[in-house]
Amino acid sequence: MVRRAEGERILSYHREGRCWRKYRTCKITGKGKMHYLDPRGVPESDNASYLEAERNWQRKVAKIEALETLHFAKVDAETSPSIVTALSLVNAQQAADAERAAVTAPEALRDISNAVAFADFSAMLARQQGTSNDQQSPATIEGLVGLYVADKQQEADAGQISIEMLKEHRRNLQVFSEFARDSNRIAVDQIDSRCLDEYRRCILALTNAQVAEEADAQQLGPVTIKKRLARLKQFIEWAYANGHLRELPRNLKGYTRVKSEADPSLTVGKKRWAVGECRELFEASSERTQLYICLALNCGYGATDIATLLHDHVDWDLGIIQRSRHKTGTKQAHRLWPLTAALLKKHCTKRSRILPGGGPLLLGNNGLPLVNYDADNGCRNDAIRLSLDRTLEKIIRDRIRRNEPGLFARSKQGDKVGQAKREKEIKRAVSEERQKETRGFYAFRGTSADMIEKQYGTGSKLADQFLAHTEKATKRWYVDRHFDLLFEAIGWLDSQFQFSELPSQKSEASAIDCTSAISA
């Protein structure tokens, strides 16, 4: 492996984000922008991650230059790009993989790669200018993957799929595209049964670098493997349905079946909080985080469910939230606990006369949605998850303070070096303990559902109704849902957690009257 010395590196390291970055000035607008590159969460001394980030940067520059070239061609419609411009664009697109191609690909394969890449560029340029070549299929696997991701981007813009699903398609198809390039598969016609079989064996042998130790890497989990194979199967079926593939590979049926060697009994209880732990988290949280915990336990909501609540969903007179589940569209209804209704009434936004449904019921302190997606950086911002993380870190910090009081001993007055060193050791200890906790905000949903199942039995189906799972066709189309028994179960849950009896809630009883909040 080629090792880059610090003086030879073209990328800088962003310590807060633990990733590599590069500043570039746009040739069109003249404005600069900082680009943060994958992989994320890597140490500065990791040379392998730097080399991967450098390759990603070269590929990103090639794409940016291609878009700039197309932009100039679109602005100047009278002058079409010449063959020289097209060839220079092809060379820019291939520059990212020049080092790898020189080692792995023969001269003949590189000539074919340039030829089919030029065909892909011509088709893309024709689509940009609206000519009659709109139905021309890409000749390369990489071009076909780009067309598929663009199709999924349109579905995401139309609200047909979520941004998370779009990112999953893009990420998993990028892995397949890199595999095809490494195995010298360039043309679309090279996607066959043998290609799928080799890719499956490659995925089964991959290791997970994000959770791996320095000396002992762990293999990918069965869920991750199944997702990668499933996204590839969807991609191939889409390519065949749209005429980009001549025939389907013979081994496509059953391609996504993955056996899990894990013992299901070992995972029982890992995705749920105990009642005592819920009370501890609730007591240590801010009032805003207490509202999120109440909604999760009271209604079985995840972070996205809370973030998508609208004013029209809440009937304040009855104290009931009626809506369709964000994920499945299944009808659901939950009666609010008095404490949940009081906190929700206190922190809800003002009803809008313009926005559909009266607008979001809850927003962040910055006025943005509680869960939103940053398209520029390709990341999800989840204020609800961060609020729970702060509470967990606070509890862990207090626990360490009780068990290791010497770690919190103050340094001499004016000793800034000693104070900084002590705070750094505390943060490292808190971070190590926090990484051991695998449960998150979504575990509250399973906590309440498991308690209902244990109390009312499997025959009642109340847990499924509480979670708003999809019903069979007969019930979904011919039978309406009734929630009287579920409301009774939700009231029983309130008596089990008893959040209103905690000291922090008793001290605020004069400010918030929980019993009269529903009728307010």
Description of the structure:
Helix content is 51%, strand content 8%. It is globular, with a radius of gyration of 28 Å. The chain has helices at 47-75, 83-94, 98-104, 107-129, 141-157, 163-182, 193-205, 222-241, 275-284, 287-299, 303-307, 338-347, 383-403, 416-436, 443-456, 462-467, 473-478, 484-497, 503-506; strands spanning 12-14, 19-25, 32-37, 207-208, 218-219, 314-315, 320-324, 331-335, 371-374, 379-382. A hairpin with a 6-residue loop joins strand 7 (320-324) and strand 8 (331-335). It has 19 helices and ten strands. Helix 1 runs antiparallel to helix 2 and helix 10 packs across helix 15. Mean pLDDT is 79; it is low at 74-90, 99-118, 126-134, 263-269 and 514-520. It starts with 11 loop residues before the first strand and ends in a 14-residue tail after the last helix. A three-stranded antiparallel β-sheet has the order 1-2-3. It has a three-stranded antiparallel β-sheet with strand order 6-7-8. With 520 residues, the protein is mainly alpha-helical. The relative contact order is 0.06. The longest helix is centred in the first third of the chain and has 29 residues, at 47-75.
